[in-house]
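Predict structure. Chain length: 406.
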Amino acid sequence: MTALLRGGLPRSAAVATAPPAPPSLTAEEALRQAEAEGLTLLRSESSSTGYKGVSFNGSCKSKPYQAEVRRGGKKVYLGCYATPEEAALYYARTPEGRAAAAAPPEPPPLTAEEAVRQAEAEELTPLRSESSSTGYKGVSFNCSCKSKPYLARVWRGGKLVYLACFATAEEAALCYARSPEGQAAAAVPPAPPPMTPEEAVRQAAVEGLTLRRSESRDSGFKCVAFKGSCKSKPYQAEVRRGGKKVYLGYYTTAEEAALCYARTPEAQAAAAAAAAAPPEPPPLTAEEALRQAEAEGLTLRRSESSRTGFKCVAFNSGKKYLKPYQAQLRRGGKDMYLGCYMTAEEAALVVARASEAQAAALQPPAASSRKRKAKPEEQPPDEPADVVVILEGRFVESTYTTRVRA
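Prediction complete.
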């Protein structure tokens, strides 16, 4: 059955009566058409096509140039074309393209020296940043745009807002310094110079704080992580607060990061609890752990599938731990970590103690050993009624016991 459109016309007839698509324009024809219509094809150094509002779409080989426009906060696609000039012509015909053509032209890019002098003239401070590869706060490097690879951006309302692309990092830093966020950051007093390890230790002693060591951290300190991505300040202080991880800052040395953590309420509460707790026993050697297991009547369970040689003992080889052997158990369907130890034997001893306790907890409570006489209805009809039964399931001297054993 032939499909009908509104008005009663067959779909095939409507397709046949539709005007054919105009032929593609060459670059020269598109330029002449733009001139005839009084339009300007806007150039763009940040676009690989050379034109504003035109992108390259390699999935369509015959018409790889795509015209697009931002409208109502959304990207609207205008079509694909054979040449970038024809796509730029369609962009120029839109209201957005006409408005962009009517806007004043952008000023020429500034050199690094010109940007620095302009910042001085406007009494602005381009903020330096050791954590940024560009050397400036609010400036990132965008390698996809070769002519203007430096991108200025700010955090505004909890979102990252891009300001513009520039040829030099200094000009991008000038753009950031002009923003309200950049001026607010410049008004903040500068951070104190970084401390050496000795200065951080002395400052902790002056403040009466304890830099808590941690053998499970490659930094050597509790709540201090090593971040190799930041070469100038690779040590990050962090704390657990309200069930979430809170980052306190980056520092040049692990001791300064540990000092920052030691100043937090969480660290002071942990230090007070550690001071009140009894000291940890010294670590056991392999021989001492074996002798202790023998003295407690425990068995260290061997395992051929574990590289440590013991069941439920793992080896942490990724980092240089002082106590690389980790004891762990499955309890209630979850992994339970029992601690880290210097030798596999001591870790296996801890596992054996926990396994012994777990096995004892799983056993049913022992029944009373009080003796009672079995009732006649509980006995087989052909057995004597004076059989004495212990509730644990063992029978004592009786003809019934002798008969069963026989």
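Summary: Residues 383-406 have pLDDT under 50 and may be disordered.
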